[in-house]
Specification:
alpha/beta, 13% strand, two-stranded antiparallel sheet, 313 residues, 7 helices
């Protein structure tokens, strides 16, 4: 069902909740239905801005998981994360994004105000000016708040029914060396490094197939995290835990993960080597054959978690 123009919530029949905050590929490409604030402030005339809209989309997720075909509870948005990222804390903005917000720069927070580029010298502003507080509230009320209202409802109803709720944050990760600026006007912005082969991020040989986000095991119990890890490994995939800005100490993982209360949150950052074709250039092209092959591991993972949760319940 539709919660707002952009946000959708579909109650399910399992202890799982599939959370898809960044796969806005079915958006209205004309952008006619955007909040007026975005229409006034976003630099639609900029090629870098339009390219960044697509770079921010985890467009393989609904095809790999398979998101819309399962009977789990599901929450998703059709609004690109660049306009408003629901996988951020509500105060994750800066004064260059919103008037009156904290001064410390945060270029890719709840509002993205910087383009994504290969080199930090090529970054451009996405906004003509900071949003006024009223304009920001319009965006939040039409996209951010409905998303979290839906997610909270899904968590509460699922836990009430099964005694446990397992939220799985479903993402894909650019196949380039992860880098986030820490200084200057664009601090907090992602920069595209060199393309990385399949390998180990921890050992510096490349990127694994899956990065698990669980805030150092604080957002989900060890058996649930290891069920995800073990299933992917059993199917031949390389799995590592997130560190640094991939640890999961902000956003949905930190906001909702309370294992002691029966609420477990794990982010699955899948690295789609060769699947999201030219995503770094803003392409939405996919290798659909590979996405369909990967469905088996996601289905196996979700089914094992479902069985495990029902045993606990």
């Amino acid at each position: 069902m539709k919660v707002s123009h952009f946000v959708h919530y579909e109650p399910g029949e399992t202890p799982l909740i599939l959370d898809m905050p960044h796969s806005a590929v079915d958006r209205d490409i004309s952008f006619d239905n955007l909040p007026e604030a975005i229409k006034k402030v976003f630099r639609f005339e900029s090629a870098a801005a339009l390219r960044t809209l697509n770079i921010g989309v985890d467009h393989a997720v609904p095809f790999m998981t398979p998101f819309h075909e399962r009977g789990d509870s599901k929450v998703w948005t059709t609004l690109p994360r660049v306009f408003c990222d629901p996988n951020r804390a509500p105060n994750d903005v800066d004064a260059l994004s919103v008037d009156g917000a904290p001064e410390g720069p945060n270029a890719h927070g709840l509002i993205w105000r910087a383009s994504v580029a290969r080199d930090e010298t090529a970054i451009e502003d996405l906004l003509k000016r900071p949003y006024t507080r009223k304009e920001f509230e319009e965006i939040v009320e039409t996209s951010y708040n409905p998303y979290h209202a839906a997610l909270k409802e899904a968590i509460n109803k699922t836990r009430d029914r099964f005694g446990i709720a397992i939220v799985l944050g479903l993402h894909t990760f650019l196949t380039s060396r992860p880098k986030k600026l820490t200084e200057g006007r664009y601090a907090g912005a992602y920069v595209l490094g060199e393309e990385m082969p399949r390998g180990s991020l921890a050992q510096g040989t490349g990127l694994p197939d899956l990065i698990l986000i669980h805030n150092d095991h604080r957002a989900a119990s060890l058996p649930i995290i290891e069920t995800v890890r073990g299933t992917f490994i059993q199917h031949g995939y390389l799995v590592e835990d997130g560190t640094g800005h991939l640890k999961g100490d902000n956003g949905i993982t930190a906001m909702y993960g309370r294992p002691e209360e029966g609420i477990h949150v794990v982010g699955l950052e899948f690295v789609p080597h060769g699947i999201e074709i030219n995503r770094a250039e803003g392409s939405l092209e996919l290798d659909l054959e590979q996405t369909h092959q990967i469905q088996r591991v996601y289905n196996a993972t979700f089914n094992r978690l479902d069985e495990f949760a029902r045993v606990l319940a």
